[in-house]
Amino acid sequence: MTLFRKSITMFAMHRESIFLIGPMGAGKSTVGKFLAEKLHFEFVDSDHVIEERTGTTIPTIFDIEGESGFRDREEAVVDELTLLHDTVLATGGGVVERESNRQHLRSRGFVVYLKSPVENLIARTKHDRNRPLLQNDNPEQVLRDLMARREPHYLEMADLVVETQQASVFKVVKTIIEALKQENLA
Protein backbone atom coordinates (compact mmCIF):
# COMPACT_ATOMS: atom_id res chain seq x y z
CA MET A 1 0.00 0.00 0.00
CA THR A 2 1.25 3.46 -0.83
CA LEU A 3 -0.37 6.67 0.20
CA PHE A 4 0.45 10.16 -1.03
CA ARG A 5 -0.21 13.20 1.11
CA LYS A 6 1.71 16.10 -0.42
CA SER A 7 1.27 17.53 -3.88
CA ILE A 8 4.83 18.36 -4.68
CA THR A 9 5.60 20.73 -7.42
CA MET A 10 7.95 22.26 -4.90
CA PHE A 11 9.99 19.05 -4.78
CA ALA A 12 10.63 19.14 -8.51
CA MET A 13 11.49 22.84 -8.46
CA HIS A 14 13.82 22.74 -5.46
CA ARG A 15 15.06 19.13 -5.54
CA GLU A 16 14.00 18.68 -1.94
CA SER A 17 15.52 15.93 0.08
CA ILE A 18 13.71 12.74 1.00
CA PHE A 19 13.40 11.86 4.68
CA LEU A 20 12.75 8.25 5.67
CA ILE A 21 10.89 7.74 8.93
CA GLY A 22 9.59 4.65 10.66
CA PRO A 23 10.37 2.28 13.50
CA MET A 24 13.68 0.55 14.12
CA GLY A 25 13.98 -2.42 11.82
CA ALA A 26 11.76 -0.99 9.08
CA GLY A 27 14.70 -0.76 6.66
CA LYS A 28 15.31 3.00 6.54
CA SER A 29 19.10 2.75 6.18
CA THR A 30 19.03 -0.10 3.67
CA VAL A 31 16.28 1.46 1.56
CA GLY A 32 17.87 4.90 1.91
CA LYS A 33 21.23 3.84 0.48
CA PHE A 34 19.67 2.20 -2.55
CA LEU A 35 17.16 5.03 -3.11
CA ALA A 36 19.90 7.66 -2.94
CA GLU A 37 21.95 5.74 -5.48
CA LYS A 38 19.00 5.48 -7.89
CA LEU A 39 18.14 9.19 -7.54
CA HIS A 40 21.80 10.34 -7.63
CA PHE A 41 21.32 11.88 -4.20
CA GLU A 42 23.65 11.73 -1.21
CA PHE A 43 22.69 9.24 1.51
CA VAL A 44 22.94 10.28 5.17
CA ASP A 45 21.95 8.31 8.27
CA SER A 46 21.34 10.58 11.26
CA ASP A 47 22.40 7.91 13.78
CA HIS A 48 25.71 7.39 11.95
CA VAL A 49 26.35 11.15 11.96
CA ILE A 50 25.77 11.23 15.73
CA GLU A 51 28.16 8.30 16.22
CA GLU A 52 30.82 9.91 14.01
CA ARG A 53 30.61 13.22 15.84
CA THR A 54 30.70 11.73 19.33
CA GLY A 55 33.25 9.04 18.51
CA THR A 56 31.11 6.40 20.21
CA THR A 57 28.06 4.21 19.67
CA ILE A 58 24.39 4.99 20.24
CA PRO A 59 24.20 2.42 23.11
CA THR A 60 27.13 4.14 24.82
CA ILE A 61 25.46 7.54 24.47
CA PHE A 62 22.31 6.05 26.02
CA ASP A 63 24.40 4.59 28.88
CA ILE A 64 26.18 7.86 29.63
CA GLU A 65 23.59 10.52 28.78
CA GLY A 66 20.33 8.57 28.83
CA GLU A 67 17.68 8.74 26.16
CA SER A 68 17.14 12.45 26.77
CA GLY A 69 20.81 13.24 26.08
CA PHE A 70 20.68 11.19 22.90
CA ARG A 71 17.47 12.96 21.78
CA ASP A 72 19.15 16.35 22.35
CA ARG A 73 22.00 15.32 20.05
CA GLU A 74 19.54 13.88 17.52
CA GLU A 75 17.52 17.11 17.51
CA ALA A 76 20.60 19.21 16.67
CA VAL A 77 21.72 16.81 13.92
CA VAL A 78 18.24 16.59 12.37
CA ASP A 79 17.97 20.39 12.30
CA GLU A 80 21.26 20.54 10.38
CA LEU A 81 20.74 17.57 8.05
CA THR A 82 17.22 18.58 6.97
CA LEU A 83 18.72 21.74 5.46
CA LEU A 84 20.68 19.68 2.92
CA HIS A 85 19.40 19.32 -0.64
CA ASP A 86 19.52 16.29 -2.93
CA THR A 87 19.80 14.00 0.08
CA VAL A 88 18.07 10.86 1.28
CA LEU A 89 18.09 11.01 5.08
CA ALA A 90 17.44 7.90 7.18
CA THR A 91 16.29 8.98 10.63
CA GLY A 92 16.18 7.12 13.91
CA GLY A 93 12.88 5.53 14.88
CA GLY A 94 12.31 7.98 17.73
CA VAL A 95 12.95 11.14 15.73
CA VAL A 96 9.21 11.84 15.71
CA GLU A 97 9.13 12.10 19.51
CA ARG A 98 10.15 15.77 19.42
CA GLU A 99 7.97 18.44 17.84
CA SER A 100 10.96 20.37 16.48
CA ASN A 101 12.11 17.29 14.55
CA ARG A 102 8.61 16.74 13.17
CA GLN A 103 8.45 20.37 12.09
CA HIS A 104 11.86 20.29 10.37
CA LEU A 105 11.11 17.05 8.56
CA ARG A 106 7.65 18.14 7.42
CA SER A 107 8.69 21.59 6.22
CA ARG A 108 12.05 20.82 4.61
CA GLY A 109 11.52 17.75 2.47
CA PHE A 110 9.45 14.84 1.27
CA VAL A 111 8.69 12.40 4.11
CA VAL A 112 8.34 8.67 3.41
CA TYR A 113 7.07 6.44 6.21
CA LEU A 114 8.36 2.88 5.88
CA LYS A 115 5.60 0.95 7.63
CA SER A 116 6.02 -2.60 8.88
CA PRO A 117 4.03 -4.75 11.33
CA VAL A 118 5.48 -5.22 14.80
CA GLU A 119 5.99 -8.94 14.14
CA ASN A 120 8.38 -8.12 11.27
CA LEU A 121 10.19 -5.52 13.38
CA ILE A 122 10.69 -8.07 16.14
CA ALA A 123 12.13 -10.59 13.70
CA ARG A 124 14.47 -7.99 12.17
CA THR A 125 15.77 -6.62 15.48
CA LYS A 126 15.84 -9.62 17.82
CA HIS A 127 19.61 -10.20 17.55
CA ASP A 128 20.65 -6.56 17.17
CA ARG A 129 22.56 -5.35 20.24
CA ASN A 130 22.91 -1.82 18.86
CA ARG A 131 19.33 -0.86 19.81
CA PRO A 132 19.41 0.33 23.43
CA LEU A 133 15.64 0.55 23.88
CA LEU A 134 15.31 -3.17 23.14
CA GLN A 135 17.92 -4.34 25.65
CA ASN A 136 15.47 -5.61 28.25
CA ASP A 137 13.44 -8.67 29.21
CA ASN A 138 10.54 -7.97 26.85
CA PRO A 139 11.68 -6.27 23.62
CA GLU A 140 8.43 -7.25 21.89
CA GLN A 141 6.36 -5.27 24.39
CA VAL A 142 8.76 -2.32 24.09
CA LEU A 143 8.31 -2.34 20.30
CA ARG A 144 4.53 -2.53 20.65
CA ASP A 145 4.53 0.37 23.14
CA LEU A 146 6.83 2.46 20.94
CA MET A 147 4.66 1.85 17.89
CA ALA A 148 1.50 2.78 19.79
CA ARG A 149 3.12 6.07 20.79
CA ARG A 150 4.96 6.89 17.56
CA GLU A 151 2.76 5.61 14.72
CA PRO A 152 0.27 8.51 14.91
CA HIS A 153 3.22 10.85 14.32
CA TYR A 154 4.59 8.72 11.46
CA LEU A 155 1.21 8.74 9.74
CA GLU A 156 0.56 12.44 10.34
CA MET A 157 3.96 13.44 8.94
CA ALA A 158 4.15 11.14 5.94
CA ASP A 159 3.80 12.42 2.41
CA LEU A 160 4.05 8.81 1.26
CA VAL A 161 3.45 5.59 3.21
CA VAL A 162 5.07 2.41 1.88
CA GLU A 163 4.42 -0.92 3.53
CA THR A 164 7.59 -2.99 3.70
CA GLN A 165 6.60 -6.26 5.36
CA GLN A 166 6.50 -8.48 2.25
CA ALA A 167 8.60 -6.34 -0.06
CA SER A 168 12.27 -6.56 -0.97
CA VAL A 169 14.43 -3.45 -0.73
CA PHE A 170 14.35 -3.22 -4.52
CA LYS A 171 10.56 -3.31 -4.60
CA VAL A 172 10.28 -0.65 -1.86
CA VAL A 173 12.69 1.65 -3.73
CA LYS A 174 10.87 1.02 -6.99
CA THR A 175 7.56 1.89 -5.30
CA ILE A 176 8.98 5.16 -3.97
CA ILE A 177 10.51 6.13 -7.31
CA GLU A 178 7.32 5.26 -9.20
CA ALA A 179 5.31 7.40 -6.79
CA LEU A 180 7.74 10.29 -7.27
CA LYS A 181 7.56 9.88 -11.05
CA GLN A 182 3.75 9.98 -10.93
CA GLU A 183 4.11 13.36 -9.30
CA ASN A 184 6.89 14.37 -11.76
CA LEU A 185 9.42 14.43 -8.94
CA ALA A 186 11.98 11.87 -10.08
Tell me about this structure.
With 186 residues, the protein is an alpha/beta fold. The chain has helices spanning 9-14, 28-39, 46-54, 58-81, 99-108, 118-125, 139-157, 169-182, and strands at residues 2-4, 17-21, 42-45, 87-90, 109-115, 160-163. The longest helix has 24 residues, at 58-81. Residues 1-14 have low confidence and may be disordered.
Query: What structural class should be given to the helix and strand makeup?
Result: alpha/beta
| Biggest sheet descriptor | 6 strands, mixed
Order of helices and strands: EHEHEHHEHEHHEH
The tally of helices reads 8
Mean pLDDT: 85
Total strand count, please? 6
Question: Beta-sheet strand percentage?
Answer: 5-15%
Low-pLDDT stretches: 1-14
Distance from N terminus to C terminus (CA atoms, Å) equals 20 Å
Radius of gyration: 16 Å
Helix proportion range: 40-55%
Q: For the largest beta sheet, what order do the strands appear in spatially?
A: 1-6-5-2-4-3
What gross morphology would you assign? globular
Question: Helices, strands, pairings?
Answer:
Blueprint: E1 2-4, H1 9-14, E2 17-21, H2 28-39, E3 42-45, H3 46-54, H4 58-81, E4 87-90, H5 99-108, E5 109-115, H6 118-125, H7 139-157, E6 160-163, H8 169-182
Parallel strand pairs: 2-4, 2-5, 3-4, 5-6
Antiparallel strand pairs: 1-6
Helix pairs in contact: 2-8, 3-4, 6-7
